[in-house]
Design a protein that fits this description.
The chain is α+β, with helices and mostly antiparallel strands. It has two domains: about 40 residues, no CATH class; about 160 residues, Protein Transport Mog1p, Chain A (3-Layer(aba) Sandwich), CATH 3.40.1000. The protein has five helices and 13 strands. Strands 4-5-9-8-7-6 form a six-stranded antiparallel beta sheet, with helices on one face. The protein has a three-stranded antiparallel beta sheet with strand order 1-3-2. The chain is globular. About 15% of the residues are buried.
Length: about 210
């Protein structure tokens, strides 16, 4: 399908959407609009963040890149899987930086499954009091149910979109971990996608709500 034909298909599948409207169909949400589609052929890079009025210094964000590393051969991708993983990247940074690696308090680190995604997490508190929590999955290129890159981050002590700019963190270590666990457990697909097991999505188009 050429570019013009793709644009016509997108135009025919486009509809306006209120900002609070959450579609029950597969497709892509854009500001005040929705493009219906379930081919999952396009490169999809998505980022979203949450702001909490009760915790104004806390930010939580999720990013996904379905087809990252698609130019790698299968053999090279498998070989680099450990290097691309979160814990692999942390270990490599420690080896390269040695005693220049930033000091921090390790709160929790290791394998962490979220739904069917077998990822890894690293929860640290920096010396300036910032909670720096990260979870990451190294999935499979072109696999919509297991994106090549799926990551979540949470920071405390944020002000004016700058990490560490707030005077203090509003959460203790225990409170920050509890919020992180709650948010991460809710990370799911909006709708059912090919290859996604039950429980990993909020809406099943094949089973409309009664």
């Amino acid at each position: 399908m050429d570019v013009a034909a793709k644009q016509i298909v997108h135009a025919n599948n486009f509809r306006l959407r209120e900002e609070s409207d959450i579609p029950s169909e597969p497709g892509n949400c854009i500001p005040y609009g929705f493009i219906k589609g379930n081919s999952y052929e396009e490169q999809e890079i998505v980022s979203a963040g949450l702001y909490f009025p009760s915790f104004p210094d806390v930010t939580f964000s999720v990013s996904s890149n379905k087809n990252a590393y698609m130019d790698y051969s299968s053999e090279l991708y498998e070989k680099m899987h450990i290097e691309l993983s979160l814990l692999g990247r942390i270990d490599m940074a420690k080896k390269r930086q040695g005693n220049r690696y930033p000091k921090r308090s390790l709160l929790r680190e290791g394998k962490r499954n979220v739904q069917h995604w077998q990822g890894e997490e690293s929860l640290i508190r920096r010396t300036d009091g910032v909670h720096d929590f990260e979870w990451a999955l190294v999935g499979k290129p072109r696999d919509v149910a297991n994106p090549s890159v799926l990551e979540a981050h949470m920071y405390t002590k944020v002000a004016h979109n700058m990490v560490g700019a707030a005077e203090t963190a509003s959460l203790t270590d225990e409170e920050a971990i509890a919020l992180w666990d709650k948010l991460l457990s809710g990370l799911k697909f909006r709708v059912k996608v090919p290859g996604a097991p039950p429980g990993s999505y909020y809406i099943d188009p094949d089973k409309p709500a009664q």
